[in-house]
Write a structure and sequence with these properties.
The chain contains six helices and six strands; from the N terminus they run E-E-E-E-H-H-H-H-E-H-H-E. It is α/β, with parallel strands linked by helices. A six-stranded mixed sheet has the order 1-6-5-2-3-4.
Length: 181
């Protein structure tokens, strides 16, 4: 119900959120919320889902390592283990290990601040991979829902306006649909 001025385009076709049709909503935070909104002339119909619990699908050798690391603690690895706020910790630790370095012991908030500052190359690379995975999932869920647009919502999205036009996010989404935050 927000006006188009309340959204920031990330990638894909530069269009407003459609007045009618299906819109997917992703809410990365402490978990990964997924819903869709069917906008019709008669009003809105919202369907919440457990879409964040679908299996994580690695795309390359780095993501294979992420999956392997997570399987040390979890039999089944859902996408929200990577694409939610705490997922940055896992990515960061795997990247530090790959670089033969000791990961800094930081809480989630401090790690996010470090990653966004660009002062630490491993934390920044972890953020790039987070964006790549989020973009990939956004593209996949757009296809699965048959949505015309995706909105990244919630507190993490609001704090991550830096994601907008982020190379890694756009590459991950494959520009499958108009993504907005």
């Amino acid at each position: 119900m927000l006006g188009s001025d309340q959204f920031q385009h990330i990638c894909g076709p530069q269009t407003d959120i459609p007045d009618q049709g299906l819109v997917t909503i992703l809410g990365p935070g402490t978990g990964l919320g997924v819903a869709h909104v069917l906008k019709m002339a008669s009003g809105y119909h919202v369907t919440e889902t457990e879409g964040g619990h679908v299996d994580f699908a690695p795309h390359d050798i780095i993501e294979d390592r992420l999956l392997q690391k997570l399987r040390e603690h979890h039999r089944r690895v859902s996408v929200e283990r990577i694409v939610a706020g705490p997922g940055l910790q896992v990515i960061y630790k795997v990247f530090a290990e790959m670089e033969g370095q000791q990961a800094k012991q930081l809480d989630d908030k401090a790690l996010w601040q470090l990653a966004l500052s660009g002062e630490d190359s491993i934390a920044a690379a972890a953020f790039d991979r987070f964006c790549l995975c989020l973009g990939s999932f956004a593209g996949d869920v757009t296809l699965a829902h048959g949505a015309r647009s995706v909105v990244i919502a919630g507190a993490l999205a609001a704090g991550l306006r830096i994601v907008c036009h982020h190379r890694a996010f756009a590459n991950g989404s494959g520009q499958r649909g108009g993504l907005k935050a």
